[in-house]
Amino acid sequence: MSDSRVGLLFNPRSIAIIGASADLGKASGLPLRNIVNSRFSGKVYPINLRAREISGLRCYPSITDLPETPDVAIFMIDAKLTPQVMEECGRKGVKAAVIGSAGFSEDGPEGQALQARVGEIAKRYGIRVCGPNCHGTFNVYENIPCGYDHSFALPIPPGPVAIASHSGALLGVIGHRAVQANLGFSYMVSNGNEMDLDLCDFAEFFLEDGRTRVVAVLMESVKNGPRFLELAERAHTVGKSIVVLKVGKSERGAITTMAHTARMAGAGEVYEAAFRQYGIISTDTVESFIGTAQLAAHQPAPRQGRLLVMTSSGAGASLMADKASEYGIELADISEQAKTRVPQRRSAILTNPFDTAGTSRAPGFLNAACEAFAADRANDCLLMYMGPLAVRHEYARQFAAAAEKYRKTAAAIINLSEPDVRDIFQAKNIPVFDAATDACFRTLRAYIDYGRFIEKRKLAAGRAPAPTPPPSGVEKIIAAHRGAKLLPHHATAELLEAYGFACAPARTVASLSDAAAAAEQLGYPVILKGLADGVAHRSEAGLISGRLTNADELKNAFTALSSKAAMHSVEKFVDHDLEMILGVKYDPTFGPAILCGLGGVFTEVLKDFALRLAPLTKEDAEAMLADLKAFAVLQKSPAHIDLLVDKLRALSDLAIELNGRIQAVDINPIALGGAAGDGIVVDAKVHL
Q: Kind of pairing, strands 409-413 and 381-385?
């Protein structure tokens, strides 16, 4: 249940604007201008030390001088004055505040200390705060703006999408685009530095709101990853959608790490894995963010993702086919039943994409074609690519009506310089894109993925159960090597074997005679590894021999490696067909993430990997494997898939049970196929 004080920020009966300027064009004057222009029916109290009146409203020198306690206080004052004024608000009994002022944690250590001080005062008095360094809140349905964003003054239509944004500037851009797209909002908030209230607090409020069907989030990061994912689960339960535009995905400035898994899976990849795993619709441009929110608010999610394209251009048909292939969207076959419903004309070839060129003037042809294709169960997505066409208005009306009638996911690409044609589509809540077709196909791809997630979720058994305590002896293995950077080679094998992994038979040796005896005992062929302390990647350091088939080859290898390491491991050579990498990374936002990919020495070059968050369900593990380019190879042996699903789930248990005691795990490679059997760990590292 959301905090009732969050609701005050969107539904206040009285508002105080601290630092309100008589110049309504200044940032400090915009909150008052927005409120006055909105015809807010409640009480408005401008607070200004020098002015007696602004815009016909009496001014007060301080919040302590007000005749009543306002529901919301908007701060538009110098950051350094904020602690004192927050104290006054607390004594006055204010319960919700918007701090629009900048100069806090975004400004370095001094600003961070100031923000912490303000936060402590607000917490002491029970004041919930949006900001600082934010543009504020806007209840679009009741037209109540509590902030200075320019978009709060736009004629944004009320509707079922609520948006929370870290960025005030991009919130303004999205507000303008929403007006152009006729996309209706219920609430808007720019929450800035999140000193107190964060994206999760606002998302929870939006999910509980009966008028909101889509929670749109423009995020830089999330403070509480597990809570955000819990809200995603709740959204599915109540039949609502979460759409995200995540900015700042690159790893510029990231700390270099030793683990393959951590080097491959940066923060951006973990966010994307979380979104995919929990059915959060991820977008990467403002256009696709708006378009996907519009689809989620008004159109059913496609369950099959089979697209039917109608165009008025032969070249356009080829372009649409190319784009569908590029984005992995399946073009539906036209059913025989649909073909019989389209009047046969020599110039009309019933293929998908369907080109209407030469047929558009035939009486009734366009209506029959739109009806037939929209009714066809072979597809569940429709796309109109409209070039120059004499009857484009009629074509748009018939396409939009048929898509609405048969409840199909639909989008259109047109020339946006023709607003009357655009309005026909938007009146039916069909997102419209200009000639930049990539935004349209990104939108369709994201919504198709969401539809498939919803369909699979109905069949899934639910989230993975909480893991049991670690297997016997595991705690002792970790405790024995506390303070080391890497778990020793033999201890790594013991740990993995405790979780059901089979490791290549090995012997640790210090001398050539011991190595020779070990090789005889294990049986040739063998390999030799140098066990140098702190070396994470032995192959890169030249600490692994090739395949050794006799004593002479072993002697040569031992001599070469002895200058690099004092201790060695003689291991049975594992003959295999395919190498995979499995790994664990501990993400500071979401916790343990599990990686699976094509392994061996080319792991980081090929970068064919998939991620999911622990704990893994069987369906999660299967989906990881299906994401890989190497999946086509794995499919040739279903036993390999079953084995990897089991190992991924075992690794997921390990990651959760040892959370806080290890930093990363690399199993690279785990060998599949060959004479030695499946699923043998050839090499592994555990970073402590």
A: parallel
